[in-house]
Design brief:
Strand content: 5-15%
Shape: elongated
Distance between the termini: 50 Å
Number of domains: 1
Radius of gyration: 17 Å
Strand order of the largest sheet: 1-2
Number of strands: 2
Structural class: mainly alpha
Length: 129
């Protein structure tokens, strides 16, 4: 069994790590709708700008959160990484939110937007010209 250092603690890492992550992804994939609903409920509870949202926006929020949960679960289940093309729906969501009266700053603070990017937590900023 191989070992790797994380902080000051030695953690064993077996060769089955990838398989274990795929199994977790498969379990999550079987529940991505429930997970999306839970994400949306948490956003509505924790982000004041969403609390008094119109029913159409709330439904769209649930759809986006569910799509995000599906992408992340599928990525884990496949043992792959999130690719930029997997996240095209986030650009569409951001555009809809602007038309629905949600600022880009508020949208970016949601788990749906801020936790998904191919580079980690946020997409890289475009260089200024």
């Amino acid at each position: 069994m191989e070992e790797r250092t994380q902080g000051s603690e030695q953690l064993p890492v077996g060769r089955d790590h990838g398989r274990a992550m795929r199994r977790v992804g498969e379990a999550l994939a079987s529940r991505y709708t429930d997970i999306g609903e839970a994400i949306a409920a948490r956003i509505l509870d924790e982000i004041p700008d969403y609390r008094d949202a119109a029913p159409d926006l709330i439904n769209d929020l649930r759809t986006g959160a569910t799509a995000t949960a599906e992408v992340l679960a599928r990525t884990l289940a496949e043992g792959s990484t999130v690719r930029r093309e997997d996240l095209g729906f986030l650009h569409e969501l951001a555009a809809r939110r602007v038309h629905q009266g949600v600022s880009l700053e508020v949208f970016s603070s949601t788990p749906t937007a801020s936790r998904c990017s191919p580079t980690g937590m946020r997409a890289p900023k475009k260089p200024r010209t």
